[in-house]
């Protein structure tokens, strides 16, 4: 991912927080000579050796998995808030742009055994059911329903490289920076407001 130095996020804790808060990603690999991509939750976890990895699962019917055996190299893409930035918000002439936060994780994927995949599924469901009034638990599902759950491949990705971009108008002076935040908040667009909030954290 091309990222000018001014926009690079090299803070491990910042990246870790981002991945945990934006874990619905895109898993990309090459299968049978073609690029394949699947939109799925991919969770940052720590393995038994204390090393950070990514975990997730895909359907056994998904042909993308055919490529894991021939080439274990994968890319996981995670996107955060993003918004159009109008150059009319500056006090000088310039071109419009786009502010965004994104993380690319490169690594090597391996399919895990069924028992481990089910444990991962339990943890995933517990995470997203935490705020439910009547939370679902994998342990409480019937044998019939669990047969459906066994139609997945669980996987782990050993992380080789992380590239993180936080493009939030860092190249603007304080006056224009502040004005961009104000204009983003005026839009009443949730994504634009989220960008404004992130910009507020970067320059107080």
UniProtKB/TrEMBL annotation:
Protein name as it appears in the record: Protease
GO molecular function, one term: peptidase activity
Pfam families linked to this entry: FMN_bind_2
Example GO BP: proteolysis
Alphabetical keyword list: Hydrolase, Protease
Organism: Flavobacterium hercynium
This protein's record includes keyword Magnesium: no
SUPFAM superfamilies: FMN-binding split barrel (SSF50475)
Gene3D superfamilies in alphabetical order: Electron Transport, Fmn-binding Protein, Chain A
